[in-house]
Design a protein that fits this description.
Length: 142
């Protein structure tokens, strides 16, 4: 009796995650997010400018529900596969939001090697499905 209920219990546990995943918006096909600057392998000063490029969709401030738009996010030393893309992106040093609709930002990082990756997300800070991400770049801060 208990054994026969296990598959149902498993289904009930999975169902909320499926519902949330289904809620993610599809990006415009062919949308790309990329670094205009810095470039992969660049050496930069402690304070440097990040320029974020986007092709295929538009940038709008967070919270503004306009079709085919979203805002930029920057992952600093944070691998994409460590994030739960079914949930809203946390606000942290490693997961920065540009909710004002910025396409350029001044960044300060300590000396050493750092990885950067752009993640373009919708007005709710939710990832598109499939995710719109740039290549990972590695920079050296002097
Ligand atoms: Cu955001």
């Amino acid at each position: 009796m208990i054994k026969s209920l296990l598959p149902l219990a498993a289904l009930l546990l999975v169902a909320p995650a499926l519902t949330l995943a289904a809620d993610r918006l599809a990006p415009v096909e062919g949308t790309e997010v990329y670094f205009i600057a810095p470039a992969d392998g660049d050496t930069v000063e402690t304070t440097f400018t990040v320029r974020m490029g986007l092709h295929g969709m538009g940038v709008a401030p967070a919270g503004v529900d306009v079709g085919n738009t979203g805002h930029h996010h920057l992952l600093v030393n944070t691998p994409l596969d460590e994030l739960d893309l079914g949930a809203g992106l946390p606000f942290s040093e490693g997961t920065r939001h540009f909710g004002g609709g910025q396409t350029e930002a001044s960044l300060q990082l300590p000396a050493g090697e750092h990885t950067l990756q752009l993640l373009f997300m919708d007005y709710r800070h939710l990832s598109f499905d499939p995710p719109v991400v740039s290549d990972v770049i590695t920079i050296t801060v002097e």
